[in-house]
Amino acid sequence: MQMLLTVMVVVQMLSALVMIGLVLIQHGKGADMGASFGSGASGSLFGASGSANFLSRSTGVCAAIFFACTLALAYFGNLRASTGGGESILERAVPASTAASAAPASQIPGAASAVAPVVVPQAPAVEASGAAQIPAK
């Protein structure tokens, strides 16, 4: 099962990268605007309003592969999570009282036995705007 998930992730990543590359090398719709007014041929076989060319068809195929892999990974991820005992992540978390009592500060190597309080210097109070510095008329 893990091998299948790994292959799906690899196929999804490759299809995403190929799709990005194909989109970047295609011409925009505005690039063929001159062809509709008779100033040249467009990139497709049947003219400016003809069928889609090779790049747009292959982009659609890559998008279909990408979406199929995404749906399959979501399905298998949900399937694996539901068979994990039926509990949420919060239910599996260690309570804070247990975690704090498990390792007191005296057991941490290099920790001082007496912990000095941390003093944070206070900034002087300053007005948010310079309204006091503006002379009145």
Automatic annotation (TrEMBL):
UniProt topology in membrane: Multi-pass membrane protein
Transmembrane regions listed in the UniProt entry: 54-76
GO molecular function: protein-transporting ATPase activity
Compartments (UniProt record): Cell membrane
Signal sequence bounds: none
Top-level taxon: Bacteria
A biological-process GO annotation: protein transport by the Sec complex
Entry GO terms, CC: plasma membrane
Organism: Methylibium petroleiphilum (strain ATCC BAA-1232 / LMG 22953 / PM1)
Coiled-coil portions: none
InterPro entries xrefs: SecG
Family: Belongs to the SecG family.
PANTHER family, per the entry: PROTEIN-EXPORT MEMBRANE PROTEIN SECG
Role description: Involved in protein export. Participates in an early event of protein translocation.
Main location: membrane
One Pfam family matching this protein: SecG
NCBIfam families per record: secG
Keywords, alphabetical: Cell membrane, Membrane, Protein transport, Translocation, Transmembrane, Transmembrane helix, Transport
UniProt protein name: Protein-export membrane protein SecG
